[in-house]
Write a structure and sequence with these properties.
This protein has about 90 residues and is an alpha+beta fold. It contains 1 helix and 4 strands.
């Protein structure tokens, strides 16, 4: 009694990258986007958690599974699906 309710939100972040240059693989555009998402969801070195800058609302946010990619081997578009869990109060 008195403990706050914790919600677990499951989300898939879809990242699309398009290469209009036929000599540039879409994966070269997609990979820096994935790096940025991973960096944004990395836990703080001081606390070991990621609260998305909202410590009163978010207890932890993290990539919760395998990142699926189609790097555009056969076309000019690449996609990545990043599974994320967010624990909210």
């Amino acid at each position: 009694m008195g403990a706050p309710v914790v919600w677990t939100l499951h989300a898939d972040f879809y990242l699309y990258a398009h290469s209009s240059d036929p000599y540039t693989a879409p994966a070269t555009i997609l990979n820096p986007l994935l790096d940025a998402v991973e960096a944004a969801l990395a836990p703080s070195p001081a606390t070991g958690i990621q609260d998305l800058g909202m410590p009163n609302v978010v207890q932890h946010a993290y990539i919760s599974g395998k990142i699926e990619t189609d790097e555009g081997v056969l076309g000019d578009q690449a996609i990545a699906i990043v599974p994320v869990e967010i624990l909210c109060v």
